[in-house]
């Protein structure tokens, strides 16, 4: 039943993203439903559905799937250097983008504030954020020996169920965009935590803004 429930959430997410296809072409500025753009988003949604359902899998299972696909693990002594290089490239690519970058051991965390990634109440990635996510995808494709955990978060305002679904949809949208840029969805764990993991106090406007975010955690494939 849990798998069916998750599938319904991701199908609903796909509907939200497809609705957003009928907007201005991010490359030409022309208002149209471009076939190429629609195809890319559809592919991204389908891939993100797969990635989202795979979110129930353990890290060990994802590692085995990637190793079985021919992606080699990082040797123990080289893990730190591999993650150092990836972090340095992410910092160069994302400088001035508004995306926060932090490091904890061999894990790299990207924090994408909700106000620059999505319109209020929407799960469609803002057109002006496409270039930033494309830069993320560029680095992820270069450093393909990492697992990618994508998690959506909201503030505590409004109904809990709505916030949970919105956080799932937003995480799924980011995953879909990354896959449309050829990032392997077998690396993904996609989830939404709603208001359950705040980083600030929801009693202030500043705190609520900080809590509205999507995070991407990168961990080495070992």
Describe this structure in a few short sentences.
With 222 residues, this protein is α+β, with helices and mostly antiparallel strands. It is built from eight helices and seven strands; from the N terminus they run αββαααββααβαβαβ. 48% of the residues lie in helices and 17% in strands.
Q: What's the overall average pLDDT, rounded?
A: 81
Q: Please report the number of helical segments.
A: 8
Radius of gyration: 17 Å
Task: State the CATH architecture.
Answer: 2-Layer Sandwich
Shape: globular
Number of DSSP strands?
A: 7
User: Given the helix and strand composition, which structural class is it?
Assistant: alpha+beta
- Into which percent range does the helicity of residues fall? 40-55%
CATH top level assignment:
Alpha Beta
- Cα(first) to Cα(last) distance is 32 Å
Q: What is the CATH H-level superfamily?
A: OmpA-like domain
Uncertain residue ranges: 1-56
Protein architecture, described:
It is globular, with a radius of gyration of 17 Å. Strands 3-4-7-5-6 form a five-stranded mixed sheet. It has a two-stranded antiparallel sheet with strand order 1-2. Residues 1-56 have low confidence and may be disordered. By secondary structure, it is of the alpha+beta class. The protein has eight helices and seven strands.
């Amino acid at each position: 039943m849990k798998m069916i429930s998750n599938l319904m959430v991701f199908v609903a997410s796909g509907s939200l993203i497809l609705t957003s296809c009928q907007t201005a072409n991010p490359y030409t500025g022309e208002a149209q439903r471009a076939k190429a753009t629609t195809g890319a988003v559809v592919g991204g949604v389908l891939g993100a559905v797969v990635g989202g359902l795979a979110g129930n899998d353990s890290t060990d299972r994802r590692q085995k799937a990637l190793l079985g696909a021919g992606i080699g693990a990082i040797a123990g002594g080289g893990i730190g250097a591999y993650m150092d290089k990836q972090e340095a490239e992410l910092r160069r690519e994302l400088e001035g983008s508004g995306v926060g970058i932090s490091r904890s051991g061999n894990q790299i965390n990207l924090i994408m504030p909700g106000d620059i990634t999505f319109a209020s109440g929407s799960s469609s990635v803002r057109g002006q954020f496409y270039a930033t996510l494309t830069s993320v995808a560029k680095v992820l494709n270069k450093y393909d020996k990492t697992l990618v955990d994508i998690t959506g978060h909201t503030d505590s305002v409004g109904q809990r169920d709505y916030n949970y679904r919105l956080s799932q949809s937003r995480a799924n949208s980011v995953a879909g965009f990354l896959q449309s840029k050829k990032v392997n969805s077998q690396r993904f764990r996609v989830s939404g935590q709603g208001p359950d993991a705040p980083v600030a106090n929801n009693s202030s406007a500043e705190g609520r803004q900080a809590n509205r975010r999507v995070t991407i955690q990168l961990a080495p494939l070992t």
